[in-house]
Structure prediction request, 433 residues.
Amino acid sequence: MIPRYTRKEMGKIWEPENRLRKWCEIEMLVCEALNQLGEIPDASLKNIQKKASFTIERVDEIEREVKHDVIAFLTCMAEGVGEDARYIHLGLTSSDILDTTFALQLRETSALIIKDIERLLSVLKEKAFRYKKTVMMGRTHGIHAEPITFGFKMALWYEEMKRNLERMQRAKEVISYGKISGAVGTYAHVPPFVEEYVCNKLGLKPEPISTQIIQRDRHAEFFTTLAIIASCLDTFAQEIRLLQRTEVRETEEFFSKGQKGSSAMPHKRNPILSENISGLARIVRAHALAALEDIPLWHERDISHSSVERVIGPDSTILLDFMLHRFTSLVEQLVVYPQQMEANLELTKGIFYSQAVMLSLVKKGLSREGAYQIVQKVAHRTWDEGIDFTKAILKDTTVKKYLTTKEIERSCNVKYYLRHLDKIFTRVFGHST
Prediction:
C-alpha cells in the first residue's frame, strides 16, 4: 500500500513559532554586531541575551491592538528585557527581519526538496535499468510512431529530474541572501558590518544592494523553479494516466486491497494519484505567476508582495514536497504490463517500419520524395486492409527492384530501432548496464 504523506519537517518551517524564533535570533545577532562596534554595552547585551523571549499568545494579543506583527513581537520581547530593550532593533526596519527570515525559510525548504528529488532520481534510475529492454510503442500526437522501451522513458524522466535538481540547487543559492540595511537600504542607521556579521552567522550572503526589501526577482526565480519542477511531475503523471487508459493499459497505478475506484462502478481502477499531481501542479504554477507579479513594487518598497508571500511561501513548498513524495511512491509501486506493450506494438502490423524502409530506398539512390511515396502507398494499404506491413513490402514489386529480402527484413526489425540504447544510457547514467 502506498504510504501516506507524513513529512512534518516542511510544515514546521512555516509554523509561527519557528518564524518568531528566527526573528529573535536575527535580533540577537544584530545586538552582538552592534556590541562589537561599541554601540551596545557588554552588560546590556548579556541582559538582552538572558531575558529576551516571547510567547505566541502574547505576541498575538499585542498585535490585535497595534496591527503590526513585528512591532507586536518587539513589544513582547521588551516586556521581559526592560530598559535595555532600547537597543533591540536599533537602526533596523521590519523588512530587515522579515526578508532575512524568509530567506532562511526558503533555504530550509530547498534542502528538503533537494532530498526529495534525489530520492525520485534513485527510483527512476532503478526503473530505467529494470525496463531497459522492455519494448513499447513510442507515440507522437497520440498515434503510434516508432518503438522505444519503457526503460528509455524512465531514463528520459531521470534526465529531466537531473536538470530539476540543478535548478533547485541554483534556486537555493539565489534565495540565500539576507539584508540588514535599514529603511531604504542605505545603511544610514546601521553600518554594513552588522549585515555582514548577521548573514555570516546565519549562513546567508549579504544582499549587495537592496532597498527596504530584497528585490523580488530572486523570489520569482525561486517560485518559478518550483513551478517548473511541478510541471515536469505533471508531465510524468499525465503520461501514466494516458498509459493506464483501458484501450492502452501498459502501466497502472498500484491498487491496494480494499481500495475502491468509483462510488457507482465497482470495476473502476482510476489513476487518482496521477490526477492529483496534475491538479496540484496548476496551483504551483499559479503561485509562480503571483511571484512574478511581486517584482514591480512602488519606489523603494510597498507592501503588496507581503500578503502574497504569506500564502505562496508555505503553500508552494509544502505542495511540491507532497507531490514529489507522492510521485516517488507512485513510480516505486507502478504496475507495468510488458505483454500489453508487446500486444500494442503489434496492433498496426509493423506499419511503424515505414521510415526504415524509406531510408533504405534512399540509400539505394532514390530521392527522398520518391521513396516516401512508394512506402506511403504500401503503408496506407496496410492501414486500410489490416495486412502485415513487412509481408506487403516483401511483395511490392517496386520496392523489390531496389531492396533484397534480407535488406527489407533488417529494416523491419525492432532491434534496428534500439541499437543505440546503450549509448543513450551511458550518456544519461555514465554506464549502460
Summary: The longest strand covers residues 143-149. The two ends are 30 Å apart (CA to CA). The chain has a mean pLDDT of 94. The longest helix spans residues 94-130.
